[in-house]
């Protein structure tokens, strides 16, 4: 569905995408993860055939976006990060007008609108003005609009940013249903649990390069341990560091990470690790044993430093 070889994107002297290879298969859900400035959005815009490729080869549905842009855009759907629906129109009018942009006959558009309203659970809000909708409803409307043309590929940029947990799960259910219908999903997200839930495969990008690729489970197995033990030790009121404690437990784990408020011990058996900590006479103020997550992988590969 999507094939990129040596893909690059430059803006003047700045190279946002520095030669990446990507293959997205039909019917899968594929994710791009990375910190701000990693090159995700630049890559997505090239895939959407709205930003020209600087260098390398890119094929979307077997076509070249440099020469077949309109044909590609007619067969894909795009759900942008920000909801750009017309707030002065009703829910139904937003979908109807967008369908007409694709040249669909009026009768077909009306039927498609009813179908999409039911799919995103907005039938009861069909005649409501968009300004009266909640954030979750607006997001579902944006997703519905991106499906008007029955796309073979759906591009989703941060699909659930700003939504509460209930609304996020409703969106996840709708996206999972689309995947079951055979739609190929390509998404960017900052939510690691979302990537674990929605993607079959993903790439982690950093500074314009792909630094890891695989399924969420395979990436966790490759770059982390089965479990993580989090230890919080009492810190004097005048301040202090967990670094001295790390030196006393570093041989109990595959890797120890020192954070300002706790230690992270990466190990295959968190409970056994905590028991050995206590055997040494060390008494953490709080302990937590959890499974390793995609977030552990992400932070290890891209660092914890904030990128603006």
How would you describe this structure to a colleague?
This protein is an alpha/beta fold and 308 residues long. The protein has two domains: 2-220, Rossmann fold (3-Layer(aba) Sandwich), CATH 3.40.50.300; 225-291, Alpha-Beta Plaits (2-Layer Sandwich), CATH 3.30.70. It has eleven helices and 13 strands. The protein has helices at 40-47, 65-73, 91-101, 106-119, 135-146, 165-180, 192-198, 216-223, 243-249, 270-279, 294-302, and strands at 2-11, 14-24, 29-33, 55-60, 76-79, 153-157, 184-188, 201-206, 209-214, 227-232, 255-258, 263-267, 286-291. It has a six-stranded mixed sheet, with helices on both faces. Helix 3 crosses helix 4 (106-119) and helix 8 (216-223) crosses helix 11. The radius of gyration is 23 Å and the shape is globular. The two termini are 32 Å apart. The model has no long low-confidence stretch (mean pLDDT 92). It is found in: Cell membrane.
